[in-house]
Amino acid sequence: MESSSAAANVFSWSATISACAKGSEWSKALGLFALMPEKRVAPNTVTYGAAISACAKGSRWEQAVAWLSETRRLRALDVLSYSATIGACEKGSQWQRALGLFECMPRMQLRPNLFSFDAAINASQKGRQWQQALGFFTAMPRAQVAPDLYCYNAVLASLHEEWLYSRGKPTPGEFLRSFQLGDYFRVT
User: Does the keyword Repeat apply (predicted)?
Assistant: First the structure.
């Protein structure tokens, strides 16, 4: 009976931390996570994922990376925690660290998902690495991940910044032809 109570406890803590992280209460989520050892509740994969997501909302990339290391040590590493850490690094202007984490995913036997690609493309944009942004974007179909509006916007913003910097204001057709994006975008 005690073990089912403990399991319910970690689930209720995880749900509460997740709800705070999804709302605008990332600091409360982190505070709750910090209380868990005192309450003798061991975090699980879901709890770590929720706490790391809260770190992303609060641009607490250092804490996200530390907790990702902890999930690795506990063998609780999953794609959601990894993606959230990439997002936390991206939001914390740590674009090189974000891209490094993304590149490590295959070695960790994790398959990048939409959130991983989105964070990597955004990190590339922040680092003015338009080639990498485009590379991640064009790799999505091979990874069987369909880009969403955020991915399209981020890759286009990255390419547009490069174009403006190097060539001036383009027409939409020139822009898409220049980056060989005809398969992804249509100009009407």
Answer: yes
Say whether both 78 and 120 belong to one domain.
Answer: no
pTM (predicted TM-score): 0.79
**Same domain flag for 81 and 158:** no
Q: What is the full DSSP assignment across 74-95?
A: TT---HHHHHHHHHHHHHTT-H
| Residue that finishes a domain, picked among 80, 111, 142 | 111
To 5 degrees, how large is the angle CA 19–CA 17–CA 9?
115
Indicate the residue among 46, 76, 111 that finishes a domain. Answer: 111
59 near 97, Cβ under 8 Å? no
Rounded Cα gap, residues 19 and 81, in angstroms: 16
Q: What is the pLDDT of residue 170?
A: 56
| Residue 158 dihedral angles phi and psi, to the nearest 5° | -65, -45
C-alpha closest to that of 90 among 65, 119, 117, 113: 119
- Candidates 59, 122, 107, 121; CA nearest to 85 is 59
Same domain, residue pair 71 and 132: no
The CA angle 117-121-122, to the nearest 5 degrees, is: 115
Helix and strand tally (H, E) in the chain? 10, 0
